[in-house]
C-alpha cells in the first residue's frame, strides 16, 4: 500500500494535489443544494424533517438526475481526496498501518457513494440500503481512523484531529436513529434531520482538510 502512495505522489509531483481536488470536493455540496432546489420547485412539501438525503435520488423535477450524477461523481472525487489526505499524513510521520486502514475504509465509503447514484432506491430498496450502508459504515470508520492518525501526526492541530470524532459521533447518531424509528415512529423526523446535520458536518470536515493541506503546501 505504501508503494501505491509513493507512486501517486510521484505521478502528481508537478501538480498541487490540493488544488487539483479542492474545487472537486464541492461537487457533493453543490449538486445536493441544486437538487434540493429542484425538488422544492416540484414538491414544496419538502423539508429536512420529512425527507432523507437519498430521497433526492428519486425526487421530481430533475432533482433525481442531478443528485444521482452528483453521487457518482462524488464517489470518484472522494477517492482522490483520500489519496491526498493519506499522502499528507504519511509525510506527517503517521504510522503507516493507520493510514492504510483509513484509506481502505475511505475507498469503501467512496464506493458506496458511487453506487448510491446507480441504485437510488426506485428499484430495489434493499440494494439501495446495502450500498448506503457501505457509505455510512465506511464513513464512520474512516472518520475515527483518520482522527486517530491526526492525533499521532506532527504539525496537525488537536482541533482538526478531534473534528473527525465529532463527525463520527453523528454517523453513530444517524445509524441508530435510522433503525430506531422502526420501533419508535416518533423518531422518524429526527432520523431525517440527523442525516442532513451529518452531511453538513462531513462537508465541513472535508473542506477543512482541503484548506489544511493547501496551507501546508504553501509552507513547504
SSE blueprint:
Layout lengths: L1 H10 L5 H6 L4 H16 L20 H29 L4 H23 L6 H28 L5 H23 L7 H32 L1
Helix pairs in contact: 3-4, 4-5, 4-8, 5-6, 6-7, 7-8
Which range does the strand content fall in?
A: under 5%
**Helical residues, percent:** over 70%
What's the total count of β strands?
0
What is the CA-based Rg, rounded?
A: 18 Å
Question: What is the terminal separation in angstroms?
Answer: 25 Å
Number of domains: 1
Q: Count the DSSP helices.
A: 8
The biggest beta sheet is recorded as: none
What sort of overall outline do the alpha carbons produce when their principal axes are compared? globular
In terms of per-residue confidence, which ranges show pLDDT below 50 for 5 or more consecutive residues? Answer: none
Question: Helix- and strand-based class?
Answer: mainly alpha
Please trace the helix and strand order, writing H or E for each element.
HHHHHHHH
Global mean pLDDT: 90
Describe the structure in your own words.
With 220 residues, the chain is an all-alpha fold. The protein has one domain. It contains eight helices and no strands. The mean pLDDT is 90.
Amino acid at each position: 500500500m505504501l508503494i501505491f502512495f509513493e507512486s501517486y505522489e510521484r505521478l502528481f509531483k508537478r501538480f498541487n494535489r490540493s488544488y487539483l481536488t479542492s474545487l472537486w470536493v464541492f461537487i457533493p455540496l453543490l449538486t445536493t443544494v441544486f437538487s434540493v432546489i429542484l425538488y422544492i420547485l416540484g414538491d414544496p412539501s419538502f423539508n429536512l424533517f420529512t425527507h432523507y438525503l437519498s430521497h433526492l435520488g428519486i425526487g421530481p423535477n430533475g432533482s433525481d438526475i442531478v443528485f444521482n450524477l452528483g453521487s457518482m461523481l462524488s464517489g470518484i472525487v472522494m477517492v482522490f481526496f483520500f489519496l491526498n489526505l493519506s499522502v499528507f499524513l504519511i509525510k506527517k510521520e503517521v504510522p503507516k498501518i493507520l493510514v492504510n486502514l483509513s484509506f481502505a475504509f475511505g475507498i469503501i465509503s467512496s464506493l458506496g457513494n458511487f453506487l448510491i447514484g446507480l441504485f437510488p432506491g426506485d428499484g430495489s430498496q434493499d440494494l439501495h440500503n446495502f450500498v448506503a450502508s457501505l457509505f455510512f459504515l465506511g464513513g464512520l470508520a474512516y472518520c475515527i481512523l483518520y482522527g486517530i492518525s491526526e492525533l499521532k501526526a506532527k504539525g496537525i492541530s488537536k482541533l482538526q484531529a478531534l473534528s473527525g470524532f465529532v463527525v463520527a459521533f453523528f454517523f453513530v447518531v444517524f445509524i441508530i436513529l435510522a433503525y430506531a424509528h422502526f420501533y419508535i415512529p416518533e423518531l422518524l423526523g429526527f432520523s431525517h434531520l440527523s442525516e442532513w446535520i451529518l452531511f453538513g458536518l462531513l462537508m465541513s470536515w472535508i473542506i477543512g482538510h482541503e484548506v489544511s493541506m493547501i496551507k501546508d503546501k504553501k509552507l513547504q
